[in-house]
Amino acid sequence: MSILIDKNTQVLVVGMTGREGANHTKAMREFGTQVVAGVTPGKGGLTHEGLPVYNSVRDAQANHQIDCSIIFVPPAGAADAVLESAHAGVPLIVLITEGVPTIDMMRAVQEVKQLNAVSLAEGGKGIRLIGGNCPGLVSSGESKIGIMPNKIYSEKGRIGLISRSGTLTYEAAKLLGDAGLGTSTTVGIGGDPIIGTTFADVLPLFEADPETDAVVVIGEIGGADEEAAAEYIKNHMKKPVVAFISGRSAPKGKRMGHAGAIIMGNVGTPESKLAAFADANVPVADTMPQIIDLVKQVLNK
Amino acid sequence: MQTVTSRVTWLTGVNFSLYTPGWNKRTWVKALRRNILKLHEYQGKELLRRFGVNVQDGKVAYTPDEVRQIAQEYGQAVVVKAQVHVGGRGKAGGVKFSPTPDKAYENGQKILGMDIKGLTVKKVLVTKAVDIDKGKEYYVGMIVDRNVQSYTLMACAEGGMEIEELAVEKPEAIIKHRVDPVAGLRPYEAREIALKAGFEGNLNKLADMMVKMSKAAFELDANLVEINPLFVGEDGIPLALDTKFDVDDNAMYRHKDLADWRELEAEHPLEIEASNYGFAYVKLEGNVGVLGNGAGIVMTSLDVVNRAGAKPANFLDIGGGARADIVYNAVKLVSKDTDVKAIFINIFGGITRADEVAKGVIQALKDGILTKPVRMRIAGTAEEEAKSLLAEVNSDLIQMYPDMFQAAEAAAQEANK
């Protein structure tokens, strides 16, 4: 069943009647995603493209089974929308919005984690947030809950893909498709400093997925998520992983106070990430096309 | 004895994002572009004062006469400090101890109008001098830390420049604490941190200063706030001698009052123009104009242009969902750059429609704005429509390629002609 979502996942679109919400609802349905309803506060009772619109997530739940909500709400209300879905017990929440204030995300992410713990303790499905500032996720040929172009995900493959960058995700998926390898599930975890799900959170899911043979991790300079991913791979993963790091020739700049230097040390540099992956025996591609060669190599081992 | 001043320095050879765990790519680019809100020392102090932090008295002066006046008013030795958005003021001679009002006037004359790393000093802060020898200098700071998904508060009994060496040599000397993003810093936690760090002085007042600093960070959406040095004199009362603030760009909409503090200075004119369009743009050294949709793809585009044997002239992210008019403006902007010999456009449409991109480029060509060869790769949503639009125009100036490497190679070739 790929990971996180499949063809049976029932989706609620929060902010469905807005410009982005409407466009992407249409594209998701064209892909084959089961969008069952939308939420726009104040527009409850209307229909949009034949789908019912509700005032709140709870109202939608009263009439539908909701497995996942995808959020297209402007930055000022985005974190609130996340919490609405989380408190309603929606097991998977995808926040697409870019530009949400960092503090709002800190608070939302922490609260989602607490709700997740409670849900799991009570024997529930747990609650997971993906994003913000992310392209969403897609199980190729089955269901797309996000904003990526449809056609590169039309056919199912056996490579899992996780990325911090939107456009590079599409790039890698297209290359994998053209090479005849294809993707099982693609997860865009988002480019913001505070995000709900990290590389290290997704890797175990791929490790346990019978439909995934290898995983491609697309990282970036900055932060320590790639280093944490390498640590997980080293200690817990049997499936082969290939990595790519973008921004290695990015312009140099200044630092932010002493605090930044203290907190990060040398973590975050391309060198640090390369060293971490080398330590975990993860080959790192120099260019995007090289990802394909490396994936083929690790599969043939 | 003069007070130690803000010691934020430029660090070359190390990536910006390395030191900004709390920043996303867009903010990083904006910071490079220097159009994010930067605060002067006196503004940061003003913000801390609003939250009840005991801050060193000081006033801003624009002329040497005003400097003398403030010094007379204080009736004691003062320090005259250049107010510019750049580190290394002290080393450049922009911070001077002034025992008398006359000396303050003289130092004001020297510092006002001086050039520090390409920036002209237009104002100075005149503060009461503190006898550093009669007290201790500490460091406290809070920064967005993606590794703990909240703020990390840092406290260290050794303030000043040495703190970074200390972080490497004796990391245990710096106390780190995750601040709960909902509850904020609780007074008992602040007391524990002060004790652990080995701060001497009035414990409750020290803790209170940290709690207030934390409140300021949360209320003002700070990516970073530092009090350095935090001075504790013989009376045991903590006093903030200098501070550094950095505000989250995404939250500026709820801090309209701070937006007035934005100062555009010493920027490349194209960077100023770009910020008016709302683009993430950085002027670089090379001759291939680069534009793409999303910081990730633009970063990779720079890598690819470098590989193709040319140098990028700029970083330009038009963002997601870009419509024809936005692309038109982007092409206009890059074309204005006299360094640019060829333009490399790299678009992968998810939220962005490829046909909209093509329309923007074609309109720029029709209006005579586009005079340099454009080599582009547009893929994704509405790719076919984009191809047919370009086929209709059929101009040598605009050529499309199936992948970004070929497009970058072609652009590099044009630029190196």
TrEMBL record, chain A:
It holds the Pfam family CoA_binding. Its EC number is 6.2.1.5. GO terms for molecular function: nucleotide binding; succinate-CoA ligase (ADP-forming) activity; succinate-CoA ligase (GDP-forming) activity. The keyword Metal-binding does not apply. The active site is at H258 (tele-phosphohistidine intermediate). It is an enzyme of class 6 (ligase). Keywords: Ligase, Nucleotide-binding, Tricarboxylic acid cycle. Heterotetramer of two alpha and two beta subunits. This is Succinate--CoA ligase [ADP-forming] subunit alpha. Residues 4-100 form the CoA-binding domain. Succinyl-CoA synthetase functions in the citric acid cycle (TCA), coupling the hydrolysis of succinyl-CoA to the synthesis of either ATP or GTP and thus represents the only step of substrate-level phosphorylation in the TCA. The alpha subunit of the enzyme binds the substrates coenzyme A and phosphate, while succinate binding and nucleotide specificity is provided by the beta subunit. Substrate binds at Y170. Belongs to the succinate/malate CoA ligase alpha subunit family. One of its GO terms (biological process) is tricarboxylic acid cycle. CoA binds at T17, G18, R19, E20, K43, I96, T97, E98. SUPFAM superfamilies: NAD(P)-binding Rossmann-fold domains (SSF51735), Succinyl-CoA synthetase domains (SSF52210). HAMAP family: Succ_CoA_alpha (MF_01988). It comes from Deinococcus cellulosilyticus (strain DSM 18568 / NBRC 106333 / KACC 11606 / 5516J-15).
